[in-house]
Known about the structure:
Helix content is about 40%, strand content about 25%.
Amino acid sequence: MKKIFLSLPMHDRKDEDIKFTIEKMKSVIKAMYPDEQIEFVDNFNCEYDKIKSVSETEKRLYYLGEAVKKLGECDSFAFIRVNNGLYDYFGTGCWIEREVASRYSIKPIELCDHYGEVYLPDLVEKERKMRLEYETKCSNGIPVCGEDCAY
């Protein structure tokens, strides 16, 4: 059985958004390994009640410490690169989790959050190429390549 840690940005996000992203990550990973049993580990519900009276920085560091503990029990590490249309970024804790996984040879699985949808990176790159081709062939959103234009 594979044990995969899920890393995703959580700071300043609503619980529903985080849960949605976790489920999307799980579905993409299950499609990658259809014949394998997978146990998913995430850091979403880690004893929040114990730390309500501390500062925001202390909470974030507590969560990060718990994440690193859980990461150490896993075979693989699925991280998500967020693309908001302008640039790619990782959450602060995600970057540290990724560094720890790399230094301790925990196999990475890269996923992309592209406009709220979770994909494998090659699919995002394919979409970028198609968009660039479209923008090259079109002016102000109107096709300039004739009636037979596929765009």
